[in-house]
Amino acid sequence: MPEMKLPGPDHPITIAFNPKRVEVVYSGHTLADSRRALELKEASYHPAQYIPREDVDMAYLTRTDHHTYCPYKGEASYYSILMDGVFAENAVWTYEDPYPAMAEIKDHLAFYPNKVDIRLHDDAANPSAIRDAIEHTDSGSGSSQLEHAPPNVSTPGE
Prior knowledge:
Blueprint: E1 13-17, E2 21-26, E3 29-34, E4 38-42, E5 48-52, E6 61-70, E7 74-83, E8 86-94, E9 108-111, E10 117-121, H1 127-137
Antiparallel strand pairs: 1-4, 2-3, 2-10, 4-5, 5-9, 6-7, 7-8, 8-9
């Protein structure tokens, strides 16, 4: 059996909730859309977005025989994408039985960013973002910035 390693100073791995909405698009179609993604940062690699399986349209994914091994996470299984005649082989991976230190990514899928378009959205529906925008544009007195500074452009019809 392969050796299991624990993340540490020589190979740090962090997993955190991503507050942004994560959308995965392939061939013009949304394959995944999640507000529950986990962002995994491992050593010097680019961060990977791990999306809950329930937030992925599995109808376009086909399991392959391909497997890889990570001494920190365990064995990865892969899926290919087929949509509208466009095929991306082994574009998606998952750790179905990850090592205990990485248990959070169980039942999540990750996508290769060179095979799909991964979009991170700051949603206006986020209450703290709305509050920040109001506080930035309003003195809190209920009056708008228009009353505090004159416009620097003309409006149509002037």
